[in-house]
Amino acid sequence: MRLLRIVATLAWRNLWRNRRRTLIMVAAVSVGVWAMIFMNALMRGMVDDMVRSGIESLPGHVQVHRLGFRDDPSINNLLPLNDAELAAKLDAAGLVAWSSRINVPAVITSERESRGVTLYGIDPERERKITFVPNSIVAGRFLEGVSDKGIVIGRRLLDALETDLGKRVVVMSQDPDNEIADRGFRIVGVFEAKLESYEETMVFAGKSTVQRMLHVADRVTEVAIMSDDYRFVEQTVQTVRDKLGADVEVLPWTELNTYLASMLTVMDGFALVWTIVIFLALSFGLVNTLVMAVFERVREIGLMLALGMRPFGILAQVVIESLLLLLMGLALGTLLAWLSILPLQSGIDVSAVADGMEMFGSSSVLYPKLTMADVVLANVVVLGLGFIASLSPAWRASRYQPIEAITKV
Amino acid sequence: MNVTVLLAWRNLWRHPRRTWLTLGAMVFSNVLLVFMISLQFGMYRLMIENTLLTFTGHLQVQAEGYNDNKKMRQIVPDIQALSTRLREKLTLNTVSPRAMAFVLASSKDRTYGIQVLGVDPEHEPLVSSIPGLVEDGRYLQASDTAEVFIGRVLARNLRINVGDELTLLGSGRDGSLAAAVVVVAGIFESGVTDLDRSIAEIPLTFFQDTFFMRGAGHQIVITTPDLSLVNKTVAAVDSILPKDEGLVTLDWNVLQPGLKQAIQADISSAFFMYGVLVVLVAFSVLNTQLMSVLERTHEFGIVMALGISPGHLGRLVMLETAMMGTIGLFAGAFLGGLVTLWFSYNGFSYPGMEDMAANFNLPSRFYPQVTVLAMFLGPLVVFLFTVLSALYPALRLNWLHPVAAMRAA
Predict the structure, then answer these.
(1) Residues 6+ apart with CB under 8 A from B213
(2) pTM of the model as a whole
(3) Is A354 in contact with B261 (Cβ distance < 8 A)?
(4) Which residue ranges make up each domain of chain B?
């Protein structure tokens, strides 16, 4: 222990013998660490936002359908359970929130234009806890109750149909007997969404109203369920599966939208690869610095060995020197990252490339997200790999023959 | 050989290990840059081509405002005649007129809202890859009238096959009810679910009769032999169009704004990462060159006392750096080129990339191309920063005092 203390003191003092070199190296490590954490926070924030808005549009962390509905989203694929049966089973399951709804493809027509959309017949009270729409109304109001006779559509759809709040539109779809089912709705609310495609394709009406229009009594096509955290939905899936039995399909969002799920995996992979790449770029400089530091002290090292210091002491000294240097860089880099992310918490506006971000599935404001996991990743990678990288010069330093080393010019 | 050059070369190899390590940092970054840039450029090109050639084309002639609103009455009058004229004047056969409407499509047991396109069966295959994706039956022919070509998913959802009937119900150009019964001639599968689910093509003349278009259409799609010819073609088309009919020529940037912006967003994040790599290499070089200057203080003092100017010594240091940079440049470009070449035969793929790639119309395995630009762009920037970072150690020599320098250990 005493040996380590002496060696550590020596290492620390050695670092400051050549102040400029040490400072340059610390600066390099700081920049590297800053870049690791900053970039990861940015990407993490983007992916997080994508997943969130993706889940909002599904919506729900878990969805229940009749088998085959997802491939053929038609009114013929109703859930085998009606509203009352669903309520009896799901209310007892202790779920965070759930809501049943009808969603079918439909055509919406104003006096001038028609568009293909997805019609959602929803229960507004329950839906409030699940979808973003109630909080994104920019004109008019959201639906009030399952028998509301109005319809809520997106801003862009409103423009495309050349219609306005308070005007009537006709929605057409099919009933289970393949007869055209249509009904006039008054537009009572207009919503805006982060992604334009939602504004163009989603329309909402009262559940009972839609059920009457489609002649399906109290049946629904879909149940959406929320869990506490979108990252941990397995438990919820299991609970719902147990409750509803095997003749329905209960799927988490990771399987409903594989693109989003794969983004999360890709992001984790990216964070690791990026961190390691930066470290490798740093490692050349680090090893170089150590090699130089050892080289200028060959005589000194020889002397210490001759005076009885064990080779292990020399090895420890170089390794500690390297770790101290890395620690300073890490502390500074992490601090820098935190300081640079702090003012950006309110979001970075990238609306100049909004349509492009929409292709990725992301909105036009980026919120960097500093996670402990990324900070730990950067620190562990730099310290761990830094330790390994410094072993080679340290080993060489400890293998000098005292006589040769002392006499070296 | 020039004495300065010789000296610089020898100085470089005084500490072979140090030089190799610095070169290592350079080569590592260069190889990475070459590979990543090749991959990116290739991907962007493929992304653009795949997206545009599926359906959109490189440019389109439309009524002003149609691109934003896609309204039935925003028409290109006499569309066939105009297409023929464009074909003749441009001496380009890849010009095809289209018309578009949203309709409710009903089969015997299902009804869906879809987009129906009126196309010219003769020219459509020249501008879009969809006609070539026939999976069942055949594509439309010039002699067809009430025939339709639909996507695989749509056919499955409507439960119809080649030879079955489909009823289309929508509104015509003047807002009146338009209906037609068509027979399925063929089914395509593109693999892009959105297209396979929502597109039906019928002959343009039949479309015009059904939807009361009176010879009009909505867009003339044009593809050019190469992406670089788009701007020239837009100008050429503009000069051919009749002046007073409110027609505009839009290139792919306007038609698919997301595409270019997605690329821009990707480029800026990539450039941030490349920038960090380059800065880290610069730090490495700065450290090395500073050390190499400091340890020669004594020697520099002597030669300065002998009458060599500090400027001359500075040039020596810069020359050393430039030599090292040149080796790094070519070694990096060469190795990076080799790595890229290997992947250009074996393909590059990343776990989880399939879903992301599909989102951007890319194959899941990607084959980058080796180009001179991609090989040297990154390494040249690294070289530039290498030389820049040696400025500080080189300029420091101006403050060196011969006597004090000679006294230095």
Answers:
(1) B75, B99, B118, B172, B173, B207
(2) 0.80
(3) yes
(4) 3-51+259-407, 59-223
